[in-house]
């Protein structure tokens, strides 16, 4: 196992949960189009990378935010991803990290990277968009949570608290 990546995914789960709680504490945030679309994008990309590196038993479904009946349903989608990625990371054989995989949404030119690189991209991508939503939450009068990696370390690497 890659301990550093496993740690980054622990941070990602915690940060996503903190992010959701802060948004839910400011009801206007979850009705804001920019936040809703970006939240969906965060979790869709997470699921997409999990599909790319995990066992592909079925075609990946590209959803839209409107496909979720409520923001609570999108939150459940996020929580399921975090459970599934944790299972994947715990069970991944050491040699799998260096395997080369195709990233199907890059066509011209095609992109082939390692599983480790794909998982690194996914966790960094989530962090980037949480920052954008934090800025928007502040613009709406809410208080964004401190979700920096160093804050998670400082707090003793807490588990995610989704409610």
Question: Can you put this structure into words, describing what you see?
Answer:
There is one protein chain. The protein is mainly α and 163 residues long. It has a single domain (3-154), classed as Up-down Bundle (Four Helix Bundle (Hemerythrin (Met), subunit A)). 59% of the residues lie in helices and 8% in strands. The protein has helices at 3-25, 33-53, 71-91, 115-139, 149-154, and strands at 100-107, 110-114. The chain has a two-stranded antiparallel sheet with strand order 1-2. Helix 1 (3-25) packs parallel to helix 4 (115-139) and helix 2 (33-53) runs antiparallel to helix 4. The longest helix is centred in the last third of the chain and has 25 residues, at 115-139. It is globular and about 45 Å long.
Shape: globular
- How much of the residues is beta strand, in percent? 5-15%
Low-confidence runs (pLDDT<50, min 5 residues)?
none
- Return Rg in Å: 16 Å
Global mean pLDDT: 95
Secondary structure: helix percent: 55-70%
For the largest sheet, list the strands in their spatial order.
Answer: 1-2
Number of strands: 2
What distance lies between the first and last C-alpha atoms, to the nearest angstrom? 30 Å
CATH third-level topology = Four Helix Bundle (Hemerythrin (Met), subunit A)
CATH architecture: Up-down Bundle
């Amino acid at each position: 196992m890659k301990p550093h990546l496993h740690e980054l995914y622990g941070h990602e789960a915690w940060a996503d949960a903190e992010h959701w709680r802060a948004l839910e504490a400011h009801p206007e945030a979850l009705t804001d189009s920019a936040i809703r679309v970006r939240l969906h994008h965060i979790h869709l990309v997470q699921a997409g990378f999990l599909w790319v590196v995990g066992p592909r038993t079925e075609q990946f479904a590209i959803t839209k935010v409107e496909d979720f009946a409520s923001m609570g349903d999108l939150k459940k989608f996020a929580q399921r991803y975090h459970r599934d990625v944790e299972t994947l990371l715990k069970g991944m054989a050491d040699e799998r990290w260096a395997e080369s995989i195709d990233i199907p949404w890059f066509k011209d030119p095609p992109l082939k990277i390692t599983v480790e690189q794909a998982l690194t991209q996914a966790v960094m991508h989530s962090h980037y968009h949480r920052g954008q939503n934090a800025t928007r939450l502040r613009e709406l009068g809410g208080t964004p949570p401190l979700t920096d990696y160093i804050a998670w370390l400082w707090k003793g690497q807490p588990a995610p608290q989704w409610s």
